[in-house]
Amino acid sequence: MAIRPTEERPVHSSASSGKPASHADLLEDVRLLWHDLRELTHNHLKLATLEAKRASRSLVSIAAAGAFMAVLLIVVWIGLMAAAVLALIESNMVGEVEAVLLIVGANLLIALMLFLFIRSKSRYLFFPETIQSLRNKEDS
Fold it and tell me: CA dihedral in degrees (19, 20, 21, 22; nearest 10)?
């Protein structure tokens, strides 16, 4: 901190010298405090900028890794479905075409269930309770 310690300040007493205390020391302290404030603000902004750069790089890395992981999971899912088709064919329960159609139908059923789940949860994306409370305040 740039404010001078009391031992560095000259002692001015209006009672002993009969003169009012000097404002020069007070102005110097204010100037030093202002300088410290500007430096602290600059340091905080520089830190925020550096952290924003690091966060953006991390976000790009996470997005790239997520995309690669999604491709890998799709390949795994296709492999599992192919294995299921082959298992159905080998068990002589159904023919080749029927096995493929059965797996496709199961995938469509799972996709429909996920669609319904997403649709039921998507209404919360619009902050319905907040909007309702704001509308109630407007009506009042």
Answer: -90
Task: Count other Cβ atoms within 10 Å, centred on residue 88.
Answer: 18
* Structure tokens, 83: 């294995």
The answer, as to whether pTM is greater than 0.85, is no
Encoded tokens for 127: 């902050």
Token pair of 119 as six digits: 């649709």
**Distance (Å, rounded) from C-alpha 88 to C-alpha 80?**
12
Q: Which pLDDT score, from 0 to 100, does residue 135 have?
A: 87
Cα–Cα–Cα angle for 69, 52, 35, nearest 5°?
165
Does the pLDDT value for residue 77 go beyond 90? yes
DSSP state of 8: T
Provide DSSP, 31-50.
Answer: HHHHHHHHHHHHHHHHHHHH
pLDDT value of residue 131: 86
Return the structure tokens found at 91. 């068990």
Residues in the chain: 140
